[in-house]
Amino acid sequence: MVWDVGSPLSIGAILFTVIIVAAMLIWVERRLLGLWQERLGPNRVGPFGLLQVVADMIKIFAKEDWVPPFADKFSFILAPPIIMIVILMSFTVIPFAPGVGVIDSDIGVLFVLAMASLGAYSVMLGGLASNNKYALLGSLRAAAQMVSYEVFMGISLLGVVALTGSFNLREIVIAQSDGWYIIPQFIGFLIFMIAGIAESHRLPFDIPEAEQEIVAGYHTEYSGMKFGMFFVGEYLGVVLISSLLVVLFFGGWLGPAFLPPIVWFLLKTAFFIAFFILLRAAIPRPRYDQLMTYGWLFLLPLSLLNLMITGAFVLWQEGAI
Amino acid sequence: MIQLIKDTLISQVVTLWRVFVHAFDKTDTVEYPDVQPQMAARWRGRIILSRDPDGEERCVACNLCAVACPVDCIALQKAEDEEGRWYPEFFRINFSRCIMCGFCEEACPTNAIQLTPDFEMAEYVRQDMVWEKEDLLINGTGKYHDYNFYRIAGKKIGGKDKGEARNEAPPVDVRSLLP
Prior knowledge:
The structure holds two protein chains of two kinds.
Chain A lengths: L7 H29 L15 H11 L10 H18 L17 H22 L3 H32 L4 H7 L10 H14 L24 H26 L11 H22 L5 H30 L4
Chain B lengths: L1 H20 L25 E3 L14 H5 L5 E7 L5 E9 L8 H5 L5 E3 L14 E2 L1 H4 L12 H4 L27
Antiparallel strand pairs in B: 1-4, 2-3, 3-5
């Protein structure tokens, strides 16, 4: 058995790590929120409360898995696995380190965008199938949010793609050997990060679930492991967006040689995960029409401008203009 | 444009920084079962019945606390001893009803009923939440150390006639014309 892209060992290790990290985020998020709110967070179960995750898992598996009689049973059961499956699928194209990855796809960026967008179906189906007014409002908001962020999310990445000349995420990382894309593509980074927060339904853009306004939004009627899948799916989304930010703008596994490449990748990803949690602790939620206005009237033109300038720069470098 | 960037970007970054700085502040949490919290002296917790400085019960069974109680958790019955002092024959507080509002303490004319900072009153049996007079009475004076109702009030009891109370003039003899 060898460590190589697509080897069973590699696939197994990535799947295991990603799911464990997503589960541990339950604990990490609560501890970090506690730290920033001058509380302690869960510290009773095990050392530093690390086994809180196990306790939560036991609780969520032991809970009654109830399908409301008024719900559309088929879509109700179908919705939660979608978000987990599509986001786990997105991890297949992420280049973790040289030789670590699932597939080395030439359309990596497009694949991630496509899969992450399919995740919106999970939220919308779950909300519609629940046959509950709050769930309906939640999925309505999810649809409104999706049409506003999907467009500039894709366009913001095209600057990186234009600079590299490839949709392959591994080649994008290698192209950053002589300078991370955060510097030439700073605006692209900001826009993609805002879109990524909206994509993973995290505060400040957790508009579809908005527990202060519409109970729990699209997963109001869910319980037990079906709710757990939405929950873990959200954390998987955070890990995915963090690792995409690292791959696209912060040089992936690249870093000084005293640490192995995979450690650099994990450290950078952990930084962005912590940043996502800090965002949750600090920034309040906008109304969903405010997000739409902001997306369509400000971020979309800005991302188009960014793409235009980057394109002109690439052509000028090649001597075409 | 500058204003737009200031509103959308700079203010968010400032917010993020100010929240991040909280990481270096001391936590407010008290890890309660391991560390006993410092309770304020006027915390409204478990109710006690206090005694006057002579060691007698302060309660005169006037029923004002039972009337003031919004959840009717206090029950008592007046009795009178051979000296003429009033005292409760029984005094019962149902702590499963009590909401620790402190109205009884406010109503009490003799400072007998008082709330203490103790809050650890969980029981396994519901009936154990009903406390009788023997459970409520303490040996001390509680918050008011030198207050003694019968030494101040004008009521005549055994060993203290009218006009012998503290700060009290002897009663006027209405049949005498002398000033």
